[in-house]
Structures
1.
Amino acid sequence: MKLEHIGIAVKDLAASNELFSKLFNSSPYKQEIVDSEHVITSFFQTGASKIELLAATDPNSAIAKFIEKKGEGIHHMAFEVADIHAEMKRLVSEGFQLINENPKKGADNKLVCFLHPKSTNSVLIELCMEIKES
Ligand code: ZN
């Protein structure tokens, strides 16, 4: 598994875009709304991995609830896998708990699945796989 990106929960995406642009000395290469998750995201390329900023678009968003509970900060780590279905099956057989039973469409043209932090030392882990046009 390759570390694909780290997700950071932020309150104000515009302000954080500015902050991280200064930090990395580069602008986000994309901004995208993920309706199913009620979030707006922006992505920075940082070497081989990326940083994903996530802001809630709705008070019921998981990101809004996360910030309410823990404040802004690192939200998840995402690992790229070659076959997300096979990895999900393998991880369930190893005793990990999935948050979603089926992969769903995430940001940045990816199929994604989250592992419950209860089963991963309180770290929210995302598996992701590039959606290939066939
Ligand atoms: Zn992510």
2.
Amino acid sequence: MNQEEDKKKEEIEELRKQLTFSFKNLWDPENEEEMQAIMDFNQDYKVALDRGKTEREFVDYAIELLEANGYRAYETDKPLAAGDRVYEAVHGKALVAAVIGTADPLDGFNLIGAHVDSPRLDLKPNPMYESDELTLLKTHYYGGIKKYQWAATPLALHGVVITRDGETISLSIGEEADDPVFTITDLLPHLGADQMKKTASQVIEGEELNVLAGSIPLPGGDDIKERFKLGVLKLLFDQYGFTERDLVTAEIEIVPATKARCVGFDRSMVGGYGQDDRVCAYTALKALIDADTPLKRTGLVILYDKEETGSGGITGARSQLFPSVQKRMVRSILGREPSAIELQDQIEKSTMLSSDVSNAFDPTFASVSDPKNNTYAGRGIAFFKYTGARGKGGTSDANAEYFNEVTRLLEANDVPWQTGELGKVDQGGGGTVAIYQSDLGMSVIDCGVPVLSMHSCFEITSKIDVYKTYEAYKVFLEKMRS
Ligand code: MN
Ligand code: MN
């Protein structure tokens, strides 16, 4: 090769660098210090996953973490000052945590919103029955699941039972090594000829999601009506003090009994139940706790419930309760009653990250994705300008200006990011809470951690994405419009 050819090649490479753009894998085994920080962070994250298997438990865990870091319960009628760290629990299933900034609250807050509910099985109002000498519990699934994934696997029972006397009993059975677990039976392959001809959505049907709960009858002989069910009810009454009537009003959730684990020879991934969307909840919470203070703009982290069923309900993102907390905080900081238009302006000047997981590209199921427009495990926090389905139906579709502002902020602070879509066009789709904040008039964009096997009993995230998402949230809280 002569010198001229070499020069030409160099110029083309220079041009390519200048003009083209792509996202890169972020693992850097040579950076030992960061490797350690990533592994340590994820160790704590796994604990959070194990502690918070339901929305209620995650909120309890979050409050514990916040209080240990100097946060106190927000009192509506008390003033708030710069540097104050407060939280407000929302009916035990959602949470707003805040660090008060030094700036005029009317200039807007920086918010991160994630959800802490995950797909699961809920007990029906009348769950318990006996059949053929077994005691079982009827369930109704919550959120989008592949029902067959829930059979023939150990399950735990979590929730609250409120007794006739108004006493609340918290249940968590199946997590400790010597706890019993529960399960949903599947058919043996020997007799599965008809079952195996069914489509996957019918292999295990909704009314077949029956949880095996016992098989020792009440002593006294087989004249006793429903003696198997009575045997379990007696045990529950003796052990916990509640009756079948109390089960009617209870909220009991059946979740995988497995603990979060490191995945892979190199332990580079976290496997566990409920990472959608507790991975974003945890990283956001940690970012708020660790953010360098004083913050200029007040930072808010909102943990919503009910995302998996459409964000309805008093604890879901559609509830007016959440902007109401924000408005009350503005009043507490201002020390006077803001006008309606001031409050609306405040919402419009606020900036938000709608923090939810995305689908990591899965080489085993590559055909559902556009590889150029999918997010990948190992490339950091994933931004989604829009979500939705069938021609972007049901999306908030962030403005170019806002998308650019947020990503420029990250780049200026050396935080990598990536972007993609949820699968190929018309392959399916999904939604998040972003649309509900944009309904209020707030600038918002979706972002979060890519997940493999999303909505399964064992979801997978890359540890470096978890860590880099935390870094991104920290930068956003510290520096967005500050
Ligand atoms: Mn989600
Ligand atoms: Mn989900």
